[in-house]
């Protein structure tokens, strides 16, 4: 699913209202919840024991997919900078053409 960017008000200076629609597609939910399980197994390997320590969050008692997803909903953020594929700026510089 695609997110949305909408006007918050009629004033162009106001920030837009961004709706990224995180986790509205079942695939996204599966990727995130299932991804935590192998990450935990990797972190539990003896070779990493000197580096990892106890799991601070969501904690070892959180096991079910629903519990993991609840934690993800409460704590997730994006590490990507949303951008576009449209060229911006003027076409005065021919070396800028793509």
From TrEMBL:
SUPFAM superfamilies cross-referenced by the UniProt entry: FAD-linked reductases, C-terminal domain
Domain of life: Bacteria
Short name of one Pfam family: GMC_oxred_C
Every Glucose-methanol-choline oxidoreductase C-terminal domain range: 2-95
Gene3D superfamilies xrefs: Glucose Oxidase, domain 3
Gene Ontology molecular function terms on file: flavin adenine dinucleotide binding; oxidoreductase activity, acting on CH-OH group of donors
PANTHER family: CHOLINE DEHYDROGENASE, MITOCHONDRIAL, GLUCOSE-METHANOL-CHOLINE GMC OXIDOREDUCTASE
Name recorded for this polypeptide: Glucose-methanol-choline oxidoreductase C-terminal domain-containing protein
Organism: Streptomyces brasiliensis
């Amino acid at each position: 699913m695609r997110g949305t960017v909408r006007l918050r008000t009629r004033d162009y200076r106001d920030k837009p209202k961004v709706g990224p629609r995180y986790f509205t597609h079942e695939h996204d939910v599966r990727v995130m919840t299932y991804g935590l399980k192998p990450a935990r197994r990797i972190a539990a390997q003896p070779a990493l024991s000197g580096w990892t320590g106890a799991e601070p969050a969501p904690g070892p008692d959180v096991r079910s997919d629903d519990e993991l997803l609840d934690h993800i909903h409460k704590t997730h953020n994006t590490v990507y900078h949303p951008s576009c594929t449209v060229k911006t700026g003027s076409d005065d510089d021919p070396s800028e053409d793509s």
